[in-house]
Amino acid sequence: TSMAMPTIVRAAATAAATAARARVVETASARWVTAGAAASPSSPSPRARRPRCAHSRAVNDVRTFASDAAREEAACDGFDAAYWKEQIQNFNASAKPSTRALIRRLHDVDPLGVDLTLRGASTRGNSRTARMTLYDYALSVKKAHGRKVLLIRVGEFYEALGYDAAMLVMFAGLNPMGTSGVPKAGCPIVKIQETLDRLTSRGYSVVVCEEAPVMVKYGAPTPPKDRFIAAIVTPASPNYVKGAASAGEDVDFGDGSAPPVIGLASSALGYTVVTVEPDLRRVSVLEGLTAESAAARLSAGGIAPPLYRHTSLGGGHAQSGRHAAGTSAPSRRLRWEVQSILSAAEGVDAVKYSGDVVDKLLDMVRIDHGLSPDEPFDRVSVPSKGRPAPLSLATAQQLGILPTRSVPPLLTHLLPERAAPAACRAYLQELLLHPPPPDVALGIQEASVLFARATVGMPQLEVLPPSKVAKLISQREASHTFFADVASMTRGVHDLLTHEHGDIRRAGELLMKPTSLKLGHAIDAEDLASVCAKTCDIIRSVVSEDALDGATSTPASRRRDDDDARGAYAPDDSSDNDDDDDGVDDDDMSFVMDGLDRPPTLENIPARFMFENERWRGRVRRDAVAPELARVREASLALEAAINEDLVPVVHASASERKGRARKCEIEHCMRNNALWIRHVAAAARPAEFTHPRDRFGKEVSDRWTTPRVERALNDYRIATHAASVAVADALRNLAEDLHPYVSSLVGAATASTICVAVVAHASHAVNKRWTAPVLLPHGDTASAMSFTNLVPFWMPMDGATTVPNTLDVDGLLILTGPNMAGKSTVLRAVAACALLAQCGLHVPAHAARVPRLDALIVRMSSTDSPSEGLSSFAVEMMEMKSMLSACTPGTLVMVDELGRGTEASHGTAIAGAVLEALDACGARGIFATHLHGILDLPLNASPFTRRARMETAVSSDGSRRPTWRVVPGECRESLALQTALDCGLPPALVARAGVLLENQASIPLVKLPRADGAPVSSSSSSRSTTVVDAAFLKTILEQSSASALKRDDVRAISVGTNETPPVSSAGQTCVYVLRRGDGWCYCGESDHLPTRLATHRQKSDRLIELVYVAVPKEAGGKSAARALESRVIQALNAARVPLWSDRDAAHKNFGSAG
After folding, report:
1. 440 bridge partner residues
2. Residue-level pLDDT at 1146
3. Less crowded by CB within 10 Å, the N or C end of the chain?
4. pTM here?
């Protein structure tokens, strides 16, 4: 394509192609004119249509006589019609009739797929003076972006032609524009992001072109507009932000986890994964990966098409001679490795490239995203030394880190199900896939413990996608709501790092370590706090207090305006309204704006008219746009005077003349034309100066009336409000400019805030689940055993009725045997997950745990065949074993389940025994679970650290032997296979026959295994409030009531401010609380997870909320005592005349007396 051509060559090819096209069109045009001159004079030849017909014939001749030349020109110019035809062919079979009809109108020669002979087609051809048409502009853009969908702004729509229109109809769910003529489709401006999301989710990139804004006098015709490329939207950068600052709209980035651009390469050290994040201008390089680890990286974060595959990939790293190609074992293994990596990117097109692995990839990314050749990217080299190796794909899937059918998801059990943002889950997933260095893990663990034991309110932290911070500020398209979010985020980070409580402050400082690891450079807590304070002050100097408080506008019922203020203006909800579109809103008062920057209340001026023209209010401080506000006020008062003096008297006079069912004369807000006119004027009451107004296109509106004075006032008001809107947008863009030097620090603050929220949420959830912080053994300690006390699987409750905890030590290899369904695989997953969580500094599902520092964690549970490489399941097993053995060190933890079952038993037993010896020789520790009992009789050359353990069984009440799910020393040679077959529903006759064949005629009763089910349920509610109450007084009432009800003198209520969250320790306690909203209303309740309950209250209310609470100890009565205390507190609050929006729990009959 032309994008890969040198600039000089590409320019020369473009010039030659343009000249060739011009010669063909000129020749064809001359031929048609000659034929027309010889035609009969009686032939119809309307002048208005002749130029178009001449051009259409010329274009048709081009297609008839020069189709090959056109295709050659298109190829030289960078068009790629073959690509679009392939996309359409893959979809056409299942398309709906309107889509197939549009596709049939595509032209296979034209670069855009547009048949210029169809109705609605036009082009200026070779003329240099004619105005560029939509087709011409699309053609010019497509030359540089041959494989991108093109959306061009046309008025209130974004339109696409030809192939691009087909893509919108097929993949964006839009309908064609018309059933004939030029293939065209489009979306309204309000649906642009939704359309882009649908296209980028399919892997397509989009070029969005806008119209250059032009200020036109009201009623004057709109001149031709210039267009420009506003943005290139790709799967890696899917958010369109152009115009966000002017519109005052916040751009929804979701959790900010757009898939990155991925480059793959290989070297003598292993495989290399290059990750490019265009919005952050960041490139991360991870080298020395195994094939399985590279596949896991691709599966976790997704891939923005295409996948860039360096020519070194599959070229035979560490291979030479006859091993570089062919069917030798090393060559087959190499192909299997590459195939296992690419399988993680299944469905994503691959593009090969050569040259420098990183620099060349960045060049292609810059071209694809429309960036300048010297656009800087921060290069982050992900450290691999001194930390555990990245998890392989199989390990991540078997531990539930990556979604896998029938495997419990680990992430779901590390964070609260509903309260944790998606960005926090993404961070923990990234942490687990590549555990951090030990010092970072210890920092996370210590911070988690400090949060869990804190008894003071914590700063309220915001999760703001770093990509959103970088993109909106860098492109100067940040809205006031975004800046309010940034101010809240920076305030939270600053308060965390400068907290008056030492534990909270220390925890924040510790989390700078994982933040630095994530960003690739060191972050100093003191410096970050200083920058957060500075940027927060900069934002507060521009953004309005209304926006910072989240209350830029509220319903009109909050205002003290009378309905009489509307005077002669009234909503037209009568049956005689003959202009549905031009009528006023039925509830005009709902558009009255509130806040510090609300406009003045004007008599006879509709509130919606003011709202539509002054939407920019409440975005910036009044002093930032003081001159513009003064002009708006002056213009609005002049408009009010003009209407009151020119139109209102006519309304009153018409009302006195009104007879019978005559239509009511009134002032109307025409939203379509942004005007105030009068309608239904009685002839007798019509002044001489009354004239018909003109709409925004200059056409006279014959059934409406106005005066020249009112029209002048309206025009002045529109100009003033537009100037104010521009001033507000400029103030926000200037604010983004002022913050641009701090973008790197703000990205760091957003990253730190997300990490902190994730750690706090995990600590809170761990306290609630009664998980504990493990002990991570010192570096180099490979002799101490890895020990677990009362370890349970992470997906089961610690104190569940059917939960069986296990206490075990792993100081070498455990050969674990046991019957079917006895829990061997469960034990492997539980131990591996616990070890992994400890490496990451997270809590573990055990009463106590001591875990050494690991070099790698490898879990191998089962294998399937690889038909594409001609490998059986046993061959894949052997490939995996080779990878495992090559990575094993004394610091490796291995979990092997059912090795050797893919081949004949005796050979599988021998290979499994040899693998055991190799693992023991390298000093690895772990668990080797097997049903090949012959291993127990092999003369293994193993150290004393290789021990035997079994899954315990016991005789049940019905006489059958059942597993107890406990790990005990020893060995087990029974399988309980026949019992399991019965339990799983096989016919008893079949099982009996199996027993005969096994020469075991024992009667095997059919007994089902017990199963535990549970579903946590949580609920909350919130209500309204209207009055202010002293928080200190509430604390006194709560402490006095608690001391009386609990019979304790040491009760102390804890306060949580409006910008704080409850201590993590409250998550595992039953608490009684009294919360107070900003408007004074209070509410009393009790909860077993106070942080989640408070978050729910705050989510459902637009007021600031603070609370005081006491924790009810279990020894004081637990839940029953808490309900009784709640009732007592409500009664005390009622007696003190504290305004409560609900007192329905004032009497709990089933929880003791409230008296």
Report:
1. none
2. 52
3. C
4. 0.80
